Predict the structure.
Amino acid sequence: MIIEKFKHSTVLLCALMIAVEFVLTVDYFASFLMSLSLILFCLYIQFVSSRYSDMVLLAVWSKLLLFPFLLKLMNFESVVSQMRSEGGVAILVLIASCCIFFAAFLIRWGFDFKGKIVLSVKDGNVASLAVVMFGVGYFFMFLHALFRPSLIDGGGEDGFGGFGSLTSVAYLGIVLYMYKYRESVLRFDVFVVSGFFLMVFLSVISNTKHEMFTFGIAMVLSCVFFRIKLSMRDATVVVLSAVFLVVLVVPIIQSSRTLEYREMDVTDKLQYLANIDATVSNERFGYLPSTGSMVDRLDILEETDLIYDGVNTYGYVGWYPMYDALYKVLPSFVVGRKSPESSADILMWDIREKSVGILARKTPGLVASIYSVSGYVLFVPLFLLVILLIILPVVYLFGGVLYGNVLSVFFLVKYILYYTEKPADALLAIMIRDFSITTLQLCLVVFLYGLFVKGAFIGRKVGV
């Protein structure tokens, strides 16, 4: 069992990281508090099962705590060595860790829902429905890449973002296709290989890494929760694909992140990409920890320290991020043209980390964004509320256990990256708007499919 092996290895890993931390630290109080959080994380791992809530909380906690420890360990540094605060962030992380620990058991014991809805499909129709799902989702992904809003002079946006809400069923197609290999050995075929390269193509054209990384996440989580084994041949393919992405594709995406590129049509983009080899060679190792460009996406603790210090210096930002989330849930034809800046941008302006008007992606994470509202005053209830609201809708409708649960695994695949990076307001907006649209869309696609192919429907839980 992969989860059981993970539990045992985590104990040894945590012990090693704590030992190294105390050898390297110059702030024993902060290191002690961070070590307490890591010990609590280790205890939590021992209770982890195949529940949706466990996986979400594990992802959030790992991004906040485990990944920063690992990255610092790789560079042989103390995890608190470059913090601006003197133990303050360590206290905040410990409080958040206690909240996560409490939330895990609260959800398990108080909200142990079995799920109201299941996707029912005959074994013979699984592959065809998967292809339909992937085709529909990829079609909207391509439209979104062509017409999504882009920044224009004057600070506004030009384009149409509606297609972006209809793309996610492509990942359900991948998960559903993987499901047909349950209890057997997976051998990559035309669908899997072509789907991978289509996602890579789309990532390059869209100038984002989300699509191809989510494809990989769908494969990994499907293998775990559908008990799929990989042959040695396919395991080798996975390793080579990972090398291909890190060494070639990611540097291409990093090198082409310009407004000029985003405004090109597909033909011009392909021509542009053919002529950037010199730039790509400079970016080739830009995702390795030693250079730092990977750290800013994996080390949420670094952003937490930045925001903690900023709001303590310039004051808490108040409730505008929550108001902004409710505003952005509504479609543009109701509220008019929306501003291009995110709440993370405004937060960085308020703490003087960016000049007002400068837009750039930041990953403040859940803990820092909630603390920025009013500090410790409402941190615990607000943190628990957000955690419950981003987990319970999926658990209530599709069930808490992931093994063999196609729809629950799909929503874990779909949101796992958002859960670990997005601030509180963005998470609430996702669960209000995107979750509703995606659920409605997948029901509609299955319904239309069922009109032509018998034996596929979404309804009461009757077993797949």
User: Anything to note?
Assistant: The chain has 21 helices and six strands. Confidence is low (pLDDT under 50) at residues 151-156. The first helix runs from residue 2 to 24. The first strand starts at residue 118 and ends at 121.
